[in-house]
Known about the structure:
Blueprint: H1 8-17, H2 21-27, H3 40-43, H4 64-69, E1 74-79, H5 87-96, E2 99-102, H6 108-111, H7 121-132, E3 136-143, H8 152-155, H9 161-175, E4 182-187, H10 205-210, H11 214-225, E5 230-235, H12 243-261, E6 268-271, E7 274-275, H13 285-296, E8 300-308, H14 317-336, E9 341-346, H15 356-359, H16 381-392
Parallel strand pairs: 1-2, 1-9, 2-3, 3-4, 4-5, 5-6, 6-8, 7-8, 8-9
Amino acid sequence: MLYEACPTLSKFRTVFAAVPVLILSTLLSGCGGGGSGTSPAAMSSVSAPVSTLQDLTVNGDASLSSRAAAKGLIYGAATKSYLLADEQYSKALAAECGMLVPEAELKWNALRPTPDTYDFARADALLAYAESHNMLFRGHTLVWHEALPAWFQSTATPANAEQMLRSHISTVVGRYAGRIHSWDVVNEIIEPAYKGPDGLRTTSPWYQLLGERYIDIAFRAAAAADPNAILVYNEIWLDNDSPAADAKRTAVLNLIRKLKAAGTPIHALGIQAHLDEVMIGSNVEKLRAFIEQVTALGLKVMITEMDVRDRYLPADIATRDQVVANLYYNYLSAVLSNPSVIAVLTWGLSDRYTWNSTAYPRGDSLPVRPLPLDSGLNRKPAWNAIAKAFDNTSSR
Ligand code: XIL
């Protein structure tokens, strides 16, 4: 499967190729992209050139999941259960993905209408769909400071929170035991910008109710409920070459060391990889070194929520698609060089349905294009980039 280079790419080359990221960051000024309180100024220290036009041609038209599987890797995507009603879309999911992850259905606010009840209907439907199409299934997520039900704040107390957490985990993980590849046990728990002890996100209700021990409690409860699932600590904003990301990577390593020393059953780190424009042309060496340190501690790594924002890129579609694709390719080539990286998931499959449309819309109101397939479900340069990174990586 080829994608055609378009005449506007020569314009792209002229406009962007020789522009240092320092300048691009200025062009993109206003990016809040670093998350974690990273300022564009802090990120503009990157001096590598912006990615030039890359040849992302691949052989054949095999799916992403089969290219991944050929290397012992897993490729999958997030989706929402109601999107399965879009037959064209659900067919594309089945064609490209070897794994599904629910974008919302396993979060507390989806599962817990009241303190005493569970509603598994939508999660069950997604799992049934995955199983009927021979796809693996991930669980996302058992502990997060967001997506808590409205009743939570008035119901949870320091006295009942541990029991509430344990019973949620044993009920939910127990229900799907044996059918889940991996669980995101805790999600986004480090936030160095808040300057809590060890960078822990002290504003999380879970931290405030239970202190740091909620992390160990959650992992142990998950392990007891499903001894076969890979138990994952999933984290956001680990990617950039910036002081904030440096601090976050250090805090994450320290936390993993601490958990391992305490015997907490943690098996993998999930790197979300919601990439932003400031990563274009950025140096991914720090990320590669970080992954090496994580795997040296005995953990596997999964890229769990990859997408690439294009909200500050030029309107021209071919230009945008090329820049986004280059970033996919550079990022994945770097991280997949470590054989302990076992899976890559994108947060959605097609630009038809992406959280970026509402969370990170473009100022010019043009539809965003962060995913491997376009809104017509056609393969984009980003698809080629992922396919090529899989084809070029070694077997694991
Ligand atoms: C997002 C979903 O995509 C949105 O639909 C929802 O409104 C908010 O959550 N990190 C995570 C995911 O771990 O759960 C988030 O998903 C995106 C950021």
